[in-house]
Design brief:
This protein is an alpha+beta fold. It folds into 2 domains: 182 residues, Jelly Rolls, CATH 2.60.120; 114 residues, Arc Repressor Mutant, subunit A. The protein contains 12 helices and 12 strands. It has a 5-stranded mixed β-sheet with strand order 1-3-9-6-7. Helix 5 packs across helix 8 and helix 10 crosses helix 11. The radius of gyration is 24 Å and the shape is elongated. The N and C termini lie far apart (64 Å).
């Protein structure tokens, strides 16, 4: 797989005009202007750059990670360094919007270098993009216009700080809009929780717990064809519980049924549920239920 270590090499590969700065490129369509279009197709590639694009692609098969982007107008695409990209000749590029690419080293020594890693949308599968309203588009475009002014000017000792500040503002707005999107997607989050519960139930029923242990959240998300980060954020926003907490609740629910079988010891229940250490199972059970597995079993027998 081809990897591009510099921004210039990546931009050159895309067959786009060379950047004005060795670590930053900004393309923006103003008025009657149009964005340049990158090369027609590409096998899987990676690079060391961040990309933030608005309405850059409207349809086609662009693969980012393991999934295919759901293109619509108003989609903000955020790509992190070393993510796998691939697209074919069926991709249609929108000639309006903006596209910002910058090498990760451009942020070195700045607060944004640490902050950008906290923005979950850079780790999402691309079919989980941010879909903007016209008003939100204008807000982001106005910030990009400020970035482009500095980018096109003769750069001085203040240029980088100003651009970094504007980039930080752009990402803060994007984060706000993502939060809004999560709040407005209750139906989707409910569906995700149902799928999550179904995947865990199928895993429990298949007998894989004893053989492979407790499934990881990444495994479950992969089965659901969503990213781990997106699944966690959506469920946390809607239910107040993390994916790990949901998994633990399902395991404890299964444990209750198994504890009512007098032939099984606490240790056997723990092992059958995939816990390597019975004392960890007992601590988790007490934390969730308020009583130990032994007390729970005795309480049920008394009733």
């Amino acid at each position: 797989m081809q990897h591009f270590k510099t921004l210039s090499a990546y931009i050159d590969y895309l067959e786009l005009p060379g950047p004005e700065h060795p670590m930053l490129s900004v393309f923006s369509a103003k008025g009657e202007g149009f964005l340049p279009c990158p090369k027609e197709s590409s096998p899987p590639i990676t690079n060391d750059c961040y990309s933030i694009s608005l309405k850059k692609i409207v349809k086609g098969d662009l693969n980012y990670g393991r999934t295919t982007y759901d293109f619509t107008n108003g989609a903000l695409i955020c790509i992190a360094p070393r993510q796998v990209l691939q697209w074919n000749s069926s991709v249609v590029y929108d000639q309006k919007g903006f596209s910002i690419n910058f090498h990760e080293d451009f942020l070195k020594g700045t607060e944004l270098a640490h902050q950008i890693k906290k923005y979950g949308f850079f780790s999402y599968s691309v079919n989980e993009a941010l879909h903007l309203s016209p008003k939100e588009e204008k807000q982001l475009e106005s910030i990009v216009e400020n970035i482009e002014i500095e980018y096109q000017n003769n750069q001085d000792e203040f240029s980088k700080d100003i651009i970094i500040s504007q980039l930080s503002t752009l990402l803060k707005y994007a984060n706000r809009f993502y939060e809004r999107q999560f709040l407005n997607r209750k139906e989707l989050s409910n569906n995700l929780l149902e799928q999550f519960n179904q995947q865990v139930s199928e895993y429990l029923e298949s007998g894989q717990l004893q053989e492979k242990g407790i499934p990881s959240i990444e495994q479950i998300a992969d089965k659901m064809s969503v990213s781990q980060r997106y699944l966690s954020d959506t469920l946390k926003k809607e239910t107040g519980k993390t994916t790990t907490e949901h998994l633990q609740l399902l395991l404890i629910d299964e444990a209750k049924n198994m504890l009512l079988q007098p032939s099984k010891s606490i240790a056997e229940v723990a092992y059958e549920l995939g816990f390597e250490y019975p004392h960890y199972f007992s601590r988790l059970f007490k934390k969730k239920e308020g009583v130990s597995p032994t007390v729970y079993r005795e309480k049920y027998r008394m009733n």
